[in-house]
Amino acid sequence: MRTLWALIRDGWNRFWFAPQSTAPVELLRIVFGMLATAWMISLTPVLGPFFGAVAAVPKRELPTGGWTLLTLVHGTPLIWVLWLSGLLGALSLIVGFRTRLAALLAFVTVLSVTREAPLAFNAGDGLIRLLALYVLLMPAGSAVSVDRWRADRHGWCSFPRRAPWALRLAQVQLSVIYLATVGEKSGGVLWQDGSAVSYALRIGELNRVPVPPFLTESLLLSQLATYGTVATELAIAVLVWNRVARPWVLALGVLLHVSIEITLAVGFFGVAVITLYLAFVPPDRAERVLLWGRGRLRRHRSVLATGPAAPSVPEVRKPRHVPSREPVPKGPDGSGAFKHLS
Predict the structure, then answer these.
(1) In a 10 Å sphere around its CB, with 0-12 CB exposed, 13-18 middle and 19+ buried, how is residue 236 labelled?
(2) pLDDT tens digits for 155-206?
(3) How far apart are CA 98 and CA 335, in angstroms?
(4) How many CA atoms lie within 13 A of 29 on its CB side?
(5) Structural contact between residues 272 and 31, judged by C-beta atoms closer than 8 angstroms
(6) Is-contact 51 116, C-beta < 8 A?
(7) Nearest Cα residue to 208 out of 253, 258, 254
(8) Which residues share a beta bridge with 180?
(9) FRET partner for 308 with CA separation of 20 to 30 A, picked from 74, 106, 211, 316?
(10) Residue of 190, 188, 181 whose CA lies nearest to 230
(11) How far apart are CA 206 and CA 201, in angstroms?
(12) Confidence grade of residue 101 (pLDDT, cut at 50, 70, 90)
């Protein structure tokens, strides 16, 4: 009979190292590349004022072991070189070109900017930095990528099986985020008395869409929203590991973060968290999504190359010959036909 330790050891090895399809990794890589591209573009209005020749953000003394490339280019036009490298890395992640190097460029750029001015960024920017690190560690680019197409043009859409330990780190990260959030909120006075959501919705500088007063001034609705938020986050942190409950709690999470994005300006946090949800997409479903996307892309390219298909013209059929039903005249001898005249 197997010992408990053997069962734990086998379960541990299976969780971290049992090979599985890399389709979830590629799906996460593509969507994160889009997110990182949007994040890099959002830096363009503030990069010069914050870190340029007349920098509003002074050079920061980093703790021992801390580093950022902005210490080398702070206050010079080279900050745009750093930004451009990060943008090219993000764009390369979308198509999977030099994927490892692209993830490294994106990670270094995000890390440098957020470490140099931590007060100018929030938890969403920090999560993008973590996502860049996890994509760097994953076997990204192994399928549906330029890298795979250059190596194998016929099998570039086949998904190899690899150990998912880096993907598991991203999954664990999601639970840690929600558990830490619940722990922090449980100690807050506004979250304890149920007024936190009402208070946040009444901060004018954060509002995207005005919320009707009857929603923010109702004690019952405020408590339902506040306690419901904490309950949803706790449910995601725990139940996301249950295969049956996972789709339901992740759907609740999407609704929660979309509602926050609509009402409050919280930066990239909601979009980054939903991107992290992709780490839990089952491999077979991720394969179907990517192959569907490839099919759509092929059809789109075909239309662009050949133009829209001409409208079909209905076939015009010739009328069939219908024999006459008139009586055939008979000849004088009654033979039924006139004899030819000689």
Answers:
(1) buried
(2) 888 999 999 999 999 999 999 999 999 999 998 899 999 999 888 888 877 7
(3) 94
(4) 33
(5) no
(6) yes
(7) 258
(8) none
(9) 316
(10) 181
(11) 8
(12) very high
Contact present, 68 and 59 (Cβ < 8 Å): no
pLDDT tops 60 at residue 335: no
Q: What are phi and psi of 264, to 5 degrees?
A: -130, 145
Q: Where are the domains of the chain?
A: 20-146, 167-266
Looking at residue 279, the DSSP 8-state letter turns out to be: G
Distance of CA 37 to the CA centre of its chain: 12
For the cut 90, the answer to whether the pLDDT of residue 68 exceeds it is: no
Give dist(CA 133, CA 127) in Å, integer. 10
Tell me the C-alpha distance between 256 and 301, whole Å: 37
Report the C-alpha gap between 32 and 278 in whole angstroms. 10
**For residue 329, what are the contacts with CB-CB under 8 A and spacing of at least 6?**
338
How many whole angstroms separate alpha carbon 113 and alpha carbon 52? 12
Phi first, then psi: give them for residue 183, nearest 5 degrees: -60, -40
Residue 128 has pLDDT above 80, yes or no: yes
DSSP SS3 for 156 = coil
Q: What token pair was written down for 170? A: 């991203």
Phi, psi of 73 (to 5 degrees): -120, 5
Among the residues of the chain, which ranges form H helices?
Answer: 4-17, 23-42, 44-51, 70-73, 78-95, 99-116, 123-137, 146-151, 165-186, 189-192, 196-201, 213-216, 219-239, 246-263, 269-277, 283-306
Contacts of 231 (CB under 8 A, 6+ apart): none
